[in-house]
Amino acid sequence: MIRSHPRMAWLAAGLFALAALFCVPLGIEANVLLETANDPVAIADRGLKRAFDATVAIAEIETALEAKDADLAQSFVDLSDERGATLPQELRQRVKAAVDDANSAAAAAGSFASGLITGEPKDMAGLAGTALGDLFVFGDIRDAVREGSRYISGEKYDQLILGLACVGIAVTAGTYATVGAASPARLGLSAVKAARKAGRMSGQMAEWVSRSLREVIDLSALKRAGAAVTQPAVAMRAAREAVKVEKADGLVRLASDVGRVQARAGTQAALDGLKLAQGPREMSRIAVLAETKGTKTRAILKTLGRGAILLSIASFNLAAWVLGAIFTLFGLVSSAKAGVEHTTQRHLARKREREAARYAMMAQTRT
Length: 367
Known about the structure:
The protein has 367 residues and is mainly alpha-helical. It has two domains: 1-37 and 312-367; 104-276, no CATH class. It contains 18 helices and no strands. The protein has helices at residues 6-35, 40-51, 54-66, 70-83, 89-102, 105-118, 124-135, 138-152, 159-177, 183-197, 203-216, 219-225, 232-242, 249-265, 267-276, 280-293, 297-304, 315-366.
């Protein structure tokens, strides 16, 4: 029909042109999204353009102050400064006062002591105490003795804490041997243990850690130690023997990523990341985000959730948009080409018809 009627070709071209007005911009945007699919910083920046402004920042800061989370409130102030969101000066002063109070010597000392003794940090000072205890093996031995004793006696025990304590003892030995080269993993393991104790680890992440620990920890080695595992020296030796170091690379990488987040964005950001991430790859993305955004990381994760590190639209759908845009442009070009060709052919055919009629008339007049 298009071949016999050029108007149909032009009609098709017009319809494709209208479709292109809708499909091509979506296709271009989808292509840009696909190109940044592996860049969590670019994903976060695009998400913040739509989801973050001064109104959101003020509401989140007020909520954080009510919850006495000065670190999160300051994170939103830092993000507001980066994004150009205007905040009331009175609100900024309240945040500064809350941060000063949280960082006071008395509060820091109490938090440090709590982290050192209980191994459950709530802020940077608390994690410093936890990390110090773990670095000198005190914290890991404490956890290994407690959970190991429960395991051997048949009581309910936390497999994650027991396994992480054993791995921590092995990593601590590596930290000393390499003069601190493994310290990010050491600090990361402390944060992972703290997240587990505080219930701030996602179910998917906890499942992955449990599965990895089953491959890394030889629980029979702890059983062979028997009741003597309650003695710190025996527990330390048994923990080292129980760890299959050659299979612990995945856990060490996870711990290193957690340590990177903590170093750049703070303790709470590391714990928030463990609660948000559903596996080690997502934690690695959060570490990349933290290395660029620093103290603003917590506010970004609070605002966007997993949308801060992953595309909110499936790659398959984005690819379909790109293909749709290509098909629309192809249809437009093809229809326009057909319209031009058929219009030209009809013009030439009519011209030939007119010339033939003229020649016929001339022939008749001659005769």
